[in-house]
From TrEMBL:
Name the record gives this protein: 3-oxoadipate enol-lactonase
EC number per UniProt: 3.1.1.24
Domain of life, per lineage: Bacteria
Record domain AB hydrolase-1: where: 149-372
Pfam families hit by this protein: Abhydrolase_1, CMD
Keyword terms, alphabetized: Hydrolase
Coiled-coil positions: none
Lineage of the organism: Bacteria, Bacillati, Actinomycetota, Actinomycetes, Streptosporangiales
Statement: the UniProt record of this protein carries the keyword Aminoacyl-tRNA synthetase: no
Native species: Actinomadura luteofluorescens
Enzyme class of the recorded protein, top EC level: hydrolase
Record carries keyword Metal-binding: no
Domain (Carboxymuconolactone decarboxylase-like): residue spans on this chain: 31-114
Gene Ontology MF terms: 3-oxoadipate enol-lactonase activity; peroxiredoxin activity
Length: 396
């Protein structure tokens, strides 16, 4: 393959368009410059495989943004970065990072370009963030949607509210959706320890109180499902419906070992056993955003918070105590879940007569991080929404 062919191939691989199409104006007005860009740059240094395409695009965005004054090129590399699977939240974090090294003027211009591209591609805007004071600590709450029934999302052990971000936009159509960090995690890291499932249930209710919500649709995944069930047992009058995703209604023998391993071996040692329980081999091989996010969250968690959460989870005491409660329940299993298997999940459904059991094909434990489309569709089917009240008034 000659340098021109290599350059064309690399350009298309990175940017997703043929260079003749994307740089048509350059080709028409300066074939020499077109050749220098495609053959010289994209067929040369930019084609070297030592830097993967995702790292390369992130570096290109950072360099062009730091230079300043090349906003059209910046926009085109922001599109390239999105194409390589970099998430909007990662690009926004990159702009913040840029402010440290290149100053605020360049960082703010870069932010405007990133926002412009996200808008042009119809990508969701980040949720509204609130800082909320609970009984003995502060947490953060992400909100999407400003009318309709309230939905509260409780995340899994080891991550934070952001694991819900891939489904929040769709759920917020006709609903007020709140995703918060439970104690020991994200914005609530370092909250008082030890703690119990009852403390975690009280924190969820504290978040509802902070937004004047009397009754909410309570959705929890994994340990978040344990918290949701504890709320359903302790305060059923606050629950409009219950959605239990990839969870359990009883403690596993492994929980204490996981707590102790965090304390003895550190968080780096938790990454392989945890991620291989949470994701499919295909996701681990391709390393999409959900896997990168979960890996970083585990790596950065304080091992004392990790251990405290597993020990709280050991005290889960809900089995057989939800039957007969006056709200609908959805039990959503992942067909490929190695942790809370379909067998465990169908057992939960059997113990809640009248509940609906659904199994998502090919879906592992971290449902929202690997198959957000399927999860959003299942929850959208199950949860009521108000899609009437915001319609424009009839004319005349
Ligand atoms: O496997 C995990 O990491 C988490 C988990 C175990 C039981 C459950 O509900 O979540």
């Amino acid at each position: 393959m000659n340098r021109g062919e290599r350059g064309r191939r690399e350009y298309e691989g990175l940017m997703g368009r043929r260079p003749e199409e994307a740089l048509g104006e350059v080709l028409r007005t300066s074939p020499q410059m077109f050749e220098a860009v495609v053959e010289g740059a994209f067929g040369g240094a930019l084609a070297r495989p030592e830097l993967g395409r995702r790292a390369r695009e992130l570096a290109s965005v950072a360099i062009i943004a730091a230079l300043g004054g090349a906003e059209r090129r910046l926009a085109s590399h922001v599109r390239g970065a999105l194409r390589q699977g970099i998430e909007p939240s990662e690009l926004l974090a990159l702009c913040e990072h840029l402010s440290v090294y290149a100053g605020f003027p360049r960082a703010l211009d870069a932010l405007a370009v990133v926002n412009g591209v996200l808008e042009e591609q119809g990508l969701p805007k980040p949720p509204l963030m609130h800082r909320v004071a609970l009984a003995d600590h502060e947490t953060i709450v992400a909100q999407k949607g400003d009318h309709g029934p309230a939905v509260i999302l409780s995340h899994s052990l080891g991550v934070d509210w952001r694991m819900w971000e891939p489904v929040m936009e769709r759920l917020a159509n006709g609903r007020r959706v709140f995703a918060y960090d439970f104690r020991g995690h994200g914005g609530a890291a370092g909250a008082p320890r030890p703690f119990t499932m009852d403390d975690l249930a009280a924190d969820l209710l504290g978040v509802l109180d902070a937004f004047d919500v009397d009754r909410a649709h309570v959705v929890g995944l994994s340990m978040g499902g344990g918290i949701a069930q504890t709320v359903a047992v302790r305060a059923p009058e606050r629950v409009a419906s219950l959605a239990l995703l990839a969870t359990t209604d009883h403690a596993f023998d492994a929980f204490e070992g996981r707590a102790r391993s965090g304390e003895d071996d550190g968080m780096e040692a938790q990454i392989v056993p945890t991620l291989t329980r949470w994701f499919t081999p295909a996701a681990l091989a391709t390393d999409p955003w959900g896997v990168r996010y979960a890996r970083e969250r585990i790596r950065r968690l304080d091992s004392a918070d990790w251990a405290a959460a597993w020990r709280a989870f050991k005290g889960l005491d809900v089995q057989g105590r939800i039957a007969g409660k006056d709200f609908p329940t959805l039990v959503l299993a992942g067909e490929a879940d190695a942790s809370t298997t379909p067998e465990i999940m169908s057992g939960i459904a059997e113990r809640i007569p009248g509940s609906t059991y659904r199994e998502l094909p090919g879906t592992p434990h971290m449902q929202t991080l690997e198959r957000p489309d399927l999860v959003a569709a299942a929850l959208d089917d199950f949860l009521p929404a108000d899609r009437q009240s915001r319609r424009p008034p009839p004319r005349g």
